[in-house]
Every structure is written in structure tokens, then in C-alpha cells.
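[job 4471] stage=fold_predict status=RUNNING
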Amino acid sequence: MPVPQAEIVDGVKTFIPLENNPEILKLLCENLHISPGLNFHDIISTAPEFLQECHFQPCHALIVLAQNPIYEAARSQVELTIPEYKGSGPTEPVVWMKQTIGHACGLMALLHIVFSLHGGRYVLPNTELSALRQQAIPLAPEERAQLLYDSGFLEEAHMDAASRGSSRAPSPRDDNHHHFLAFVQKDREVWELNGGMNGPLFRGVLGQGEDLLSERGLELTAKDFLVAAEQTGCSEMSIVAVTGDDHFAQT
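[job 4471] inference complete, writing C-alpha cells
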């Protein structure tokens, strides 16, 4: 079956939205040549007893998908406080990229994680994604966004994975009522990485032995969205935990 193509919608390259589904995220990783040691786990409850039983630890990152009313309630005011990011280069604490491709927020969430997590060690060497990351690092934000926009490799990898979800794949022209974002910890610092905002958002610092699924970790990450879901009465939200086996990581 041929891979569907992106379309130009209102002058913007637009993809099929991705599912926040561990199997689809794993497939996207395979398409992008990301280390098989990166794993994804549905968080069906943030109750401490559930998280303790599941042993999704250490949790390096979270991918959150929220229905638009939830996202807006949680982030509309926060977005106003974030200055326009102008950083670049290898000394930045995380790799942040502006999203200019329509319906690509799921891809952006994954790229933010693998480009930033542990210095990019889950990006396999001598691959197209490795070359793309190396090209992106020194670029200013606008040039970095254009690099991603122009990448046929990213387009094909995303469109293949997005078309193989558990539900019928929509058209790129269909409205998308959800938004993805990523949380990554680096040296116990927690960063929110969302290509739809003005730049990376520093959320706070974890204590010794804490990860993103600890009480403090959830407070710095998904809690705002869980509260917003309760306040708005909207239920369409999902959380995927990202863990890694360093045995498979780039050395």
C-alpha cells in the first residue's frame, strides 16, 4: 500500500495527525532510525499505586496529547509569558524546534525528545536523522524550522506511521482538535518542548531519585492538563511515558 502524501493546505505543508499510541510511536521510531532501546508506555492512571506496579522507570520523558479545550485551559495564559526563542548551538540545555508543518505536533514531540534526551544518544549514528540533528543544532530557530519543513525523510516517516494507526486515518485537510507536547528531563531539570509555543519552557527541578512519574515529576508536567481536563469536562487526553535501555543507545 503506497504511503499517503502530505498536502498543501492554505499554503502550508500538512500531515495526517499522529495517534498517541505506543505502537505507532515505536513504528515512527523505526522509520526514523531511532534506537530500539527507546520504549513507550500508556499511562492509563497517574495514581501512585498504578505507577508503582508498572515500573515505567526511570521515566526520561512524557508525551502528552490533549483535546484543544484542555490545552487552551492549561496553556493559553502560560504561552503569553514565553519570550521568543533565539538560541542555537550545542551549549543550549535542550534542542527546541518551531513547528511550521500542519498537524505535525506528534512528530515534533518525538523529535524534541530524541534530539534532547541524553545528548541525542538514541539517534542512531550514520543515519539520515543523525545528519538532520547535526545540521539543526547550529541553526537559528527559523532556519532550523525550515530544515524540518523541507525534509522528505521526515515527511515519509511520519505519513507512513500516521496512516497505520488503530483508527481510520483522516485527510490532512480534516480539522485536528488535539495537540501534542513533550516533557524532557535533563540533569534533573524539566523542560516542556512544544513547537507551537515561542520556545522551550523551563518547568522546574526534580529532587534526587525523582523522575517524571514521581509526584514532583507529574506536578511539573501533566498535572496542569489533568486539572484542565477536570475543569473543562473534556476527557480526550492521553499520556505516554518514554523510557530507555542504554544498552541499545548510541555510544
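[job 4471] summary: The first strand starts at residue 7 and ends at 9.
[job 4471] exit 0
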